[in-house]
Automatic annotation (TrEMBL):
This is Permeases of the major facilitator superfamily. Signal peptide: none annotated. The chain crosses the membrane at residues 54-77, 84-104, 110-128, 149-169, 175-193, 205-224, 230-251. Keywords: Membrane, Transmembrane, Transmembrane helix. The keyword Transmembrane applies.
Amino acid sequence: MTLFYLKLLVTPLLMWAISLASRRWGGLLGGLLSGLPITSALVMTFLCLEQGSAFALGAVPGALGGLAAVQATYTFYLFATRKLGIAAAVSLAILFYGLAAYAFTHWGGLYLSIGVALLLIGVLIRASGREPRPDTLARPKHRYWEIPLRMVSATALLMLTTSLASWLGPATSGMLAPIPVIAWPLVVFAHVQGGRAGMAAMVRGNAIGAVGVIAFYLAMAALLERLGVALTISLAMGLAVALTLALASILRRFRAG
C-alpha cells in the first residue's frame, strides 16, 4: 500500500515540475528533463520492489527495445507533421510506436536496439537542428487544464504498467518502461502552442536525453545484482544526468559555432 501511494505522489509531482520548467525556460530544457530516464527509473524501481531484481533485469532488453521504438516514433512524428496535421500525426505515431516496440523487443535483440536508438538519436538531433528556432519573446497561451491532464495521464500509465507487470512478464514490462509518458504530452502541447519550432526544440532535448537513458539501463544491468536497488538506481541516474548535460553542452557549443 505504501508503494501505491508513492506512485500517486511522485509521478504527478515530476510531471508538474517538468511542465513548469518547460514553460519558464523553453522547450529544449523541457525536452532534456523529460528525456531523462525519470519514468523509466520509477518503473524499474517499482518492478524491483514488487517483482524482484531478477524480473527487473529481465526487463532491461525490452526497455532498450522500447527506447529504440520511442526514438523511431519521434522521428516519424517530426517528418510526418511536414505533411499531416497534428491530430492525424499523433494517431499514426501511437500506432507506429506499438508496431516498432513489438518488433524491437521480439525480433531486435539488445545490441540492435542500442544501435538503432543511437542512429535515430543522431537523425533527430540533426533534423531538429534544421527546424526554425523558437521565438524566445513569444509567450504561448497556456490553458489551466494542460498540466493537470499531463499529471493524470503520466500517473495512470505508470500505475497500469507496474500493476500488470506480473501478467505482462519482464519483456513486455520493460518495453513499456521507456514510454514517453511525460515527454510525449509535452511534445504535442509544444507543437500546438509553439508550432514546429517549439516541437522541434522539445524533440531535440528528448533525443539528447535518450543517450542518458541508454546509459541508465546498461548501468542497471551491470550493477543491480551487486549493489542493490537504491544504490544502483542512484548511480544509474547520476550517470544519465552527467552524460545528458555533457552532450547538451557539446552540441550547444557546436551549434553556436
